[in-house]
Amino acid sequence: MRIVPIPCLSDNYAYLVIAQNGDAAIVDASEATPVRDAIRREGVRARAIWSTHHHWDHVGANEELARAMGLPVAGHVTDRGRLPGLSVELHDGSTVRVGEIEARCIHIPGHTLGAIGYFVDTPSERAVFTGDTLFCAGCGRLFEGTAAQMHASLSRLLELPGDTRVYCGHEYTESNLRFAAHVEPSNDDVEPARARAARLRSEGSPTVGTTLDEERRVNPFLRAGSPEIRRTLGVAASDDEVTAFAAVRAAKDCFR
Predict the structure, then answer these.
(1) Averaged pLDDT of the chain
(2) From the CB of residue 80, how many other CB atoms can be counted at a distance below 10 Å?
(3) How many CB atoms lie within 10 A of CB 91?
(4) What are residue 26's DSSP bridge partners?
(5) What span, in angstroms and rounded, lies between the C-alpha atoms of 69 and 67?
(6) Which of 254, 166, 169, 255 is CA-nearest to residue 218?
(7) What residues contact 49, with CB distance under 8 A and at least 6 apart?
(8) Which among 23, 107, 132, 151 is annotated as catalytic?
(9) Is 91 a catalytic residue?
(10) What is the pLDDT of residue 111?
(11) Is 121 a catalytic residue?
(12) Predicted model pTM
């Protein structure tokens, strides 16, 4: 399996998930031209579009690419009528394939109600495509779901093996890590993560592909139990994790 991030729009990522035989799935086809260029550059054959949720900046090229290349478009069943080109309706636990690669669908509502992740487990690599649910060092805003739903969805993702690499929908990592340093300044793992992200961006490289183990150490949305984060945000030690998570989300919404 090869995974190729494709920068799109101002800060989005689409992805090619490439099988050994050269077949590929497109994850989150937000913009047609960069995706076409990547398919041509990598010398692969697109076979399907896997959409994580219905927002336009993740599905804007679905219909154009599906029509031109004869591709099925997969997404969650509850996005029927909202996700352009949807032809393969998925449920929690459904699977999709490209070549020898099988991805298991995980329903992760919160950012949107129909958000799904695609988890791939191969002998050489594990990866999860999370759209706007889990970012590197962050998580998506709650546009349709509740804090309880998002917290539960992130907890489900954390049940995956720790070496699973996270491929998310946006290049927000440096901003997310600035927030992480603000709410948990004594976390010794945050500064090395910031240095790594800055180096990668200075080289013109994506920051995506962190592991879930790394996210556990630096992502404040996965660390709602941290006493320091709770002190910073005025959350009582006795408050439950959903209450603490909601406070982290509200603080990030206002962070500049």
Answers:
(1) 97
(2) 12
(3) 11
(4) 16, 49
(5) 6
(6) 166
(7) 25, 26, 27, 29, 62, 65, 66, 71, 72, 73, 74, 85
(8) 132
(9) no
(10) 98
(11) no
(12) 0.97
Token pair belonging to 14: 């689409």
Backbone angles phi, psi at 169, to 5 degrees: -90, -10
Strands (E), 180-251: 210-211
3-state helix, strand, coil in the chain (%, to 5): 35, 25, 40
| Marked catalytic residue, from 23, 54, 55, 151 | 55
Residue 76 falls in the annotated catalytic set: no
107 is catalytic: no
Structural domains in the chain, CATH included, are 2-254 (3.60.15.10)
φ, ψ for residue 79 (rounded to 5)?
A: -90, 10
Task: State residue 30's pLDDT score.
Answer: 96
> What is residue 68's predicted lDDT score, i.e. its pLDDT?
97
Q: Which helix (H) or strand (E) is 147 found in, with range?
A: helix 147-157
CA angle at 93 for the pair 146 and 134, rounded to the nearest 5°: 40
Instruction: Determine the pLDDT at residue 84.
Output: 98
